[in-house]
Amino acid sequence: MSFTDESGFAESETHRMMRETAREVANGYGDDYWRDVADGMAPTEFWEDCADAGFLGVTVPEEYGGEGMGIQELTTIVEELVAHGSMGAEMLFVVNVVFGAVTLTNHGTETQKEELLEPLVDGDLNFCMALTEPNAGHNAPNLDTFAEEQDDGTFLIDGSKQWISGVDKADKMLLVARTTPKDEVPKRTQGITLFLADPHDENVERRELDVGIPTPENQYELSFDGYELTEDDIIGTRDMGLYQLFDTVNPERLVGAAGAIGVGRNAIERAVEYANDRVVFDEPIGAHQAIQHPLADAHSKVEAAKLLVQKASWLMDETSGTEDMKRTAEVSNMAKLRASEAGHEATDVALQTHGGNGFSRDYMIVEMWKGSRLGTVAPGSSQMMRNHIAEHTLGLPRSY
């Protein structure tokens, strides 16, 4: 659905075709494929199909091989892929398309764009982002990772990162580090810089984390010990990286929200089919209100959250300026909160509908349940979304 003055709530032909193509791609991969992905298999063929369909370059300008569209189209694609069974596809798009293509399109140098955007669009280059740390999860200004400038203009980076997705497959990494101490900048949100880094450098050590959720990307802890970068590796403006990062984290939240809508739709569809087919005491269990009402509630909440995601995506594409960006961030946080909560509730209701069968991996519901639970924690927990809404939208005192 495209929120434009001309179309209102009518879906544009472009978006209809995108959804149709996304369904065709998703329908080529069944539950067995995604169970294998959850067990460690790389979704190479799926990603190649996404590249061939033009999905990976949807937000990239045409001059760099992309489609020249926006976040509305990106969230449309992700939602439809996940709604038709591509479990965890939203994470693949966040790690590569948002962290990579969106960041470079907005803030990369011309050299960085010319070198990296086309391979990202073609699916030949993988990306990741190293932001969160053991002592600075949601509190990015408290980053300990420090890039100290040397006399020759290079930067030596020391520190650690945690919960970094897809490092093992990534060719390039968006690295967030402090370049000026907090006590030397006017505001604590200044002094942070974005770098283009090599995750496989000998001075970058990684350790895989044991995570009990099904994802297409493994999670890692990273240690940087004298890792060297140059001024040419800076993305955007030195010391202003946290502000530039908003152009990455807001799309990240919306793509994650689109995935939550997709998994909610998929879970409800499976639950409805099961409730119609499962006969107990001579009638389908779906004939009982104890089954009907939770599914009806979950469906309506997913649909309501979907409208917020569409509104936030439209705002991100159509608005500019400080006040507009503030409003976009507010709606993006509301969309992320409502979508992740609605998506998880839908999988929970679907699990309950399936009864004991819901815990069998053959039905995929328990895999959806675990994955959707992650969505209420990352990217950006439900509590932090509520904090932002309370402070920035409602004008309540800062609570953290």
Q: In what order do the strands lie side by side in the largest sheet?
A: 1-4-5-8
- The total domain count is 3
Global outline: globular
CATH class of the largest domain: Mainly Alpha
Share in helix: 40-55%
* Ends apart, CA distance between termini: 36 Å
Rg (C-alpha, Å): 21 Å
Please summarize the sheet with the most strands.
4 strands, mixed
What's the architecture of the largest domain, going by CATH?
Answer: Up-down Bundle
As residue ranges, the low-confidence spans are 1-7
Estimate the mean pLDDT confidence. 92
Measured by DSSP, the beta-strand proportion falls in 5-15%
Domain Acyl-CoA oxidase/dehydrogenase middle: 128-225
Protein name: Acyl-CoA dehydrogenase
GO molecular function, one term: flavin adenine dinucleotide binding
Domain Acyl-CoA dehydrogenase/oxidase N-terminal: 12-124
